[in-house]
Amino acid sequence: MKDGFLGYHTSFMLDAVVVALVLVIPVLLFSLFSVKFRQHYVRHRNLQLTLAVLLLLAVFAFEFDLHWIQGGWRNVIKKGGTLSIDQLSLIQRVLQIHLLFAASTPFLWGITIALALRGIPRPPQPSSHSRLHSWLGWGSTLDLVLTSVTGLVFYYVAFVYRA
After folding, report:
1. Residue 86: inside a domain
2. Helix axis angle, 12-37 relative to 130-155, nearest 10°?
3. What is the tens place of the pLDDT at every residue in 110-159?
């Protein structure tokens, strides 16, 4: 599991996370459509909880692989060959931007889910918590989308662009 499966010099888990980043957006949009336009509150809850658990597991597996198996992100980057100082600097800047969103997403999304589980009735339906949940949900959605987009930009800059 040292090498990726998308055709670039990456790791298997990095490629798996990239695929997850691509797949999460349509599922997220479907979940939002379900609740906003169809009032399918149970579907929305189940999709959000499933996404959260799957992404949390994927991130833990990725972090374990990155730090314990690969020996850090720089080792994964080096699989593609030698980098100039400018290339490494660009990759590092893009990674820093990505990490701003990637670090905040689990906290914001976790708070959104925890408060929803506590404040929204069972079965799910509109309640006094709905307004706060809507604000937190849209913030979490924006954060998750920015995590996905910046993660894909990082992958492109670090591996695809230089291939």
Report:
1. yes
2. 150
3. 999 999 999 999 999 999 999 999 999 999 999 999 999 999 999 999 99
Instruction: Using alpha carbons, select from 35, 33, 20 the residue that is nearest to residue 147.
Output: 20
Residue 55 placed within a domain? yes
**Considering the domain boundaries, does residue 142 fall inside one?**
yes
The residue with tokens 């980098």 is 83
CB-based burial, 40-51: b 16+ in 10 Å, e otherwise: bbebbbebbeeb
- From the list 4, 11, 159, the residue with the least C-alpha distance to 90 is 159
pLDDT at 1: 54
In this structure, the number of other CB atoms found within 10 A of the CB of residue 154 comes to: 24
Closest CA to 14 of 1, 27, 25: 1
Specify the number of domains making up the chain.
1
Q: Which range marks the domain in which residue 140 is found?
A: 12-160
Site of tokens 């949009």: 29
- Is 59 domain-assigned? yes
